[in-house]
Amino acid sequence: MVADAATPVGDLTLRTLAMPADANAAGDIFGGWVMAQMDLACGIRAAERAKGRVVTAAVKEMSFAKPMKVGDTLGVYISITRIGRTSMTLQVEAWAQRYLSEVMERVTHADIIMVALDDDGKPKEIPPE
């Protein structure tokens, strides 16, 4: 991933509004809320690809470049970059569309590894596309 990306990479998988309950007293959205939305988006995309249940196995390095504010719309973009036997790596970008504006800024990005599970909670093979 390019650190100074000007446009989102990947498919828009989740879009939501940052609300006052997601913020601290200064109006900055909690980083944990952004991370949770990224995890939800990965779960959606990975479950579609695995055709079943998935869990988060790892989150590679994440740092926040820009703050999210109350009223911003968060867009989470996903690209599957690697598929193994039972796991996959997803490149995830979180972008803020600023309140009442066309301005989009990348808030953070990470690689997240998801594992496909069978009905007993054990890793299962990811089917071919």
Brief characterization of the structure:
This protein has 129 residues and is an alpha+beta fold. 16% of the residues lie in helices and 37% in strands.
Mean pLDDT: 95
Strand content: 35-45%
Helix share bin: 10-25%
Largest sheet: 5 strands, antiparallel
CATH fold description: Thiol Ester Dehydrase, Chain A
Number of helices: 1
Distance between the termini: 25 Å
User: In one word, what is the shape?
Assistant: elongated
Low-confidence stretches: none
Biggest sheet strand line-up: 1-3-4-5-2
Say how many strands there are. Answer: 5
The second-level CATH architecture is Roll
Name the CATH class. Alpha Beta
Secondary structure category: alpha+beta
Order of helices and strands: EHEEEE
What is the rounded Rg?
15 Å
In total, the number of domains comes to 1
Q: Going by CATH, what is the homologous superfamily? A: Hotdog Thioesterase
Structure description:
The structure is a single chain. The model has no long low-confidence stretch (mean pLDDT 95). The protein is α+β, with helices and mostly antiparallel strands. The chain has a single domain (11-116), classed as Thiol Ester Dehydrase, Chain A, CATH 3.10.129.10. The protein contains 1 helix and 5 strands. A hairpin with a 6-residue loop joins strand 4 and strand 5. The protein starts with 10 loop residues before the first strand and ends in a 13-residue tail after the last strand. A 5-stranded antiparallel beta sheet has the order 1-3-4-5-2, with helices on one face.
